[in-house]
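In this section we walk through a basic example: taking a raw amino acid sequence and producing a predicted 3D structure, encoded as discrete structure tokens. The instruction is simple. Fold the sequence below.
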Amino acid sequence: MSRLSVLVRTALRVNFGWSLLTSGQLLRHKRDWWLVPLILLGVVGLVPTMIYYIKLIKFLYDSLVLVGQTAAILTMGVLLGQFLILVFGLYYIIAAFYFSRDLALLIPLPLTPTQVMLSKFTVILVNEYLTIAPLVLPILIVYGLLSRKGLVYWMGAVLVYLLLPVIPLAIGGLLVFGMMRVINLSRKKDALIIIGSLILIAAAIGFQFWFGQRATGNEVDPNALVRFLSDPNGLVQRVGASFPPSIWATKALAYGLGASGLANTALFSMVSLVLFLGLLIASKKLFYEGLIGLSETSTAKRILSREQIERGVSSGRRPVRAIFLRELRLMNRTPIFLLNGVLAVVLIPALFLIMAKAGSQPEGLGRLLSLVQSGNPTVAILAAALFMAVCGGLNGTASSTYSREGAQFWISKVIPVSPTDQAKGKFLHSYAVVVLGLAASTAVLAFVFQMKASLLLAALVLAAPAGVVMTAVGMMIDLARPLLTWINPQKAIKQNLNVLLAFFADLGMIFGLFLLTRILRRLGLAGVAQIAALTFILLVMAGLSFSLLLRFAEKRLPQIE
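The resulting token sequence is shown next.
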């Protein structure tokens, strides 16, 4: 067995924790069996979402049949998958290539930079397959079934899906290699990594929308409209204009063994191969050059002794405030934590803002627009509150608050601060991220959707306590089974099972509130009464969840080893 194959196999085992699965240690203690009902709760909330998503795909397909543009639905799926990989894959690449703790072990070994890069690229590639599966696979499957495509389509679908992440990941890898090589020349590496990553993400998003606008144009030409409707690829060209590889993948699937299908399959495959080879060449020249010296940022930081920590906590500063500032500094000084935790809460509102300014309104945006601008104030408030809660609450900050400490968790056990005060400080930090998401989503609703101030205020009154519940539940999940033994800081958030479990819990809570809203409506509550009832229920839930968090922290924190 070659060194590369052993390295890749080991990296995959470490990444997915296969040793835990094979040894039966996933549920190590009796207290871990609470995961089972929590997963079931997530499934209860996820299944209706997937059913609605599949129905939406079928509806779009049936609508496109009328104009002979059914292939456009493939373009939407491919473009969505590649766009997510290009944006979120940037800081995933940064974490895997430059902040993994195993790099200190791999570099001295008789391994080439290309072998190390390939092992990490393989792990990223497999993770991206899993990330885009819920979004892309339903589109490929529904299209194949409804269009009654044969074996050639399904074989092509497998090939396209396997190649789907290669182009955006290769582009992201080349950009990151170049960025890190430049950043390594500076002393303030952490700050430059954060700034550079945000610039790359903003540039990637802006370039796609600019390219799409330039390719499609904004002028309404009757003759162009006729050509657009008469061309079976008219909508494909327009939807995929922002990222041409999505057009190649669509035509490869739609035309199969035809001349156009084979040509686009070859083009899609060749561009993927060329970019991947370019990444290999860049890894030889830039990977280690950008890596060497990067750890000097962390090793140069002053390490506090236990006595210094105790003096700092007991020097008059309030313990809760001290813990809050400690969490803030821990996240700000670790670029991967900051990008993963904070980027999500501002990226979704930013995408809505960019799409609205670019004149593009996909199905989700159009649906939200119709709801928040509904003539029924109650519907508008509920839709806005849902948007705010999703933007603010669905992030991995709370559900990784203890896991992010990793090997430094011993500090939380020895400092003279009670578990409840620590939980309060960590809660304030996690909820500050929620507030950032609420502020960003409120700005989008006010600026893009022109929502009235009174309706925005009512929506905030609903979303704020919902964020408290999401934060407290996420922290309790992470406190119950913190992931403290990680190599890659990315694993503490993105690959942390606790984050997924918290997502399931949040999804279940949202689904439960949806059912509760219908029940209140059937009981005759509407308008102000319905909003008031929901606000009261959410405030009670917020108070109970926060109280449970403090009690659980006091009991559980001393038990963690």
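Looking at the output, two observations stand out. Residues 49-218+229-301 form one domain. The radius of gyration is 25 Å. In the next section we compare this with other chains.
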